[in-house]
Amino acid sequence: MAGLVVVLVVLVLLVVVVRRRYVVVRVRGHSMSPTFHDGERVVATRRRHYRVGDVIVFRPRTGSTNDTDVAWRIKRIAAVAGDPVPAWLGTDHPVVPAGRVVVVGDNTGHSQDSRQLGYIEISGVAGAVPDRPAGG
Question: Which chain positions lie within coiled-coil regions (predicted)?
Answer without folding.
Answer: none
